[in-house]
Structure prediction request, 774 residues.
Amino acid sequence: MKALALAGVNLRRFIRERSNLFFVFVFPLAIVLVIGLAFGGGGFAPALGVFAEDVGELGDQLVSALAEEVEVVRYDSQGVMVDAVERGQVDAGVVVPAGYDADLRSGQPVELLFTSRPDGGQPQLQALVAAAASDQNTVVTSASFAAAQTGSSFDQLVGQAQSLASSLPGVEVTTTTTGEALFPATLGQFDLGASSQLLLFMFLTGLTGSAAIIQTRRFGVSTRMLSTPTPMSQVVAGEAMGRFAIVFVQGAYIVVATLLLFQVNWGDPIGALAVVVAFALVGAGAGLLMGAVLSNDQQAGGVGVMLGLGLAALGGCMLPLELFSPTLQTVAHFTPHAWGLDAFAELVRNNGTIVDILPELGVLLGFAVVLLSLATWRLRVTLTR
Amino acid sequence: MRATLNIAWKDLRQRVRDRSAIILGVVAPLVLAFIFDLIFGNTIEGQFSATLGVVDLDGGVVAEQMVTGIQGAGEELGMEIVTGLEESAARQRVEDGDLDAYYLLPEGLTEAAQGGSPAQIEVVGNVDAPTDTAIATAIGEAFAARIETTQLSVALVASGGDVGQDQLGQIAAEAAQQPPTITIEQASAETRQLDQATYLAAGMASFFLFFTVSFGVTGLLQEKEEGTMARLLAAPISRFSIVGGKALTSFVFGLASLVVLGVATTLLLGANWGDPLGAFLLMVALSLAAVGIMSLVAGFAKTVEQAGALQGIVAVVLGLLGGSFFQFARRGILADLSLLTPNAWFIRGLGDNVAEGAAAVLPAIGAILLFALVTGSIGAFTLYRKVTL
Prediction:
């Protein structure tokens, strides 16, 4: 089988280039790690900057109450806090004025300064601050009202109010949630990112492989191969298998490495293997087609990155498909990525098996057949140019 | 000088002709910024527009006050409030994600609150809207606290003795009018955060810039590999002009691509780069830094292929760390670490430029020029030593 020998040469040429090893084996894992750490588990959580100095016991109590409602980041000066709000490092900021404790204990009104950006800087967080301050407010406000009404000392009334507050009937606010979560709670921290990055990188690697095919053509290697008693079909098959081998090895590596390192759940192993094989065929086909059509390997680099990242984004590898608008979801399914992600969602979240993902596999194989046939047809012409 | 310009001119023409520089420098970043903007368009991070519903099963005066209170809070905080809902309809709309949360004011709320027995308000939130639900709860709690303040005020006054039952209603009404001791004053900060379209445009432009400029400096290695270096050396031009010509090619290409992208994204995506002068100065500084860094990397490589590979790795790591694709940390060690890249300073400088104009970008320009100076001088030295047969 000369085609197998050609595929082997392609694989060796690829591995000998050490930067390829970085992009294929090191980089994807780093991205899965970073994205899992940054976005996995919990999603977007608002953060509140707090500047509170010399605020006394009541001030510290207030900050603790805030910390129960929202993530609190403390700053050493108001200027630094405002800068952090302006740069979006936190969503809003609160200044607890100096002497907060003393002012409240003497019945003086105090103002908390709430700072937010005008553009979506989440003024709504102000409600959280008000809620956190409400316990103190209730005690102090009612004590000052009673002091005015009865003429008793404010200090004494505050003490009385604190002991009475716990025995009040009160109004309780309870919170429940409803609806079906977009992402089940069992989804691991790295799970969502891992399948997206797997598909993104497999496709990207497939496309960047086109540069090697263009070099083979430009340096006249393919013409010389064809001058030997090797049929065109064997040469084309060899190039295709070489590309497939590289993409498949990367895919399998990412699956196994993320499974071992980050305990990523890939679902049914046979199903996952089938998706990786089908997607490797798609990636190989796309790379082969680009290698057949373009004539300059530096152009191929640029176009490869553009298509690799662009299609991945459209296909739901950068923002989950569930968050797409209905129109955009339809558009997304013109990319192979969306079908691959659907297949993994079925395997991982619904514990599906290979039978359940047959439709997705079928579509992926359809992509592969179309891309590989187009590439073969073009390569037959361009290989000899 | 003349030789430098000649070499740069020839390289520029050659690069424009093979189109790869235009694809990398303009087309790819523009297309990707457009696609990313399309995808992320509907989910602007960190911005919510909560819609809350109110189901009033009580109909009494306390419930009425509460509905008014929620509407007031909604208006003040920029949220939409839907009143007069049936419970089943509200629940359905929350499940569909049509409403983020609804308040359930139960039957007997007024009676309980006025009669001094425990009352309960329920907030039912969509499972995927935790922040909005927390805010809805907070607004409810603030209202509950007002009722509690009145109750406590009455209890305190009553405990002072000699208050008749008939006076309690009057005291409660007065207590309800008592202004809160702790108030919240709003202050508006400026925005130094780029809007989404601008962030994506600037991120993609700065990411691809490094690839665009790498052609020029790598050209030096190419001259050696293709044997044309010997001819350049034979000509009566200094070795310095050869390095200078390559660096100039890189710089011109880099700056041109940034300027074209700046104009194109403003027109096509509605990006806002702020004061044109500030944006241009940042572009000049970033182009210089990119040339410096790519020269340094090329200086370490023996072949064109090796240089390309190393430059690719450096460009991708800088882009990722510098937040050219997404900001993976808003603060903390990772955010500080990203300031070790000129990419992050570029975005930061643009934020200052949008907020305050050209004068505010000087710190960012200083930081970027520092990268340019350090890497550029080492790079120039190593490349200079490569100008041999």
The beta strands of chain A are 47-52, 71-74, 92-96, 110-116, 171-178. Chain A has a mean pLDDT of 87. Residues 232-262 of chain A form the longest helix (31 residues). The radius of gyration of chain A is 31 Å.
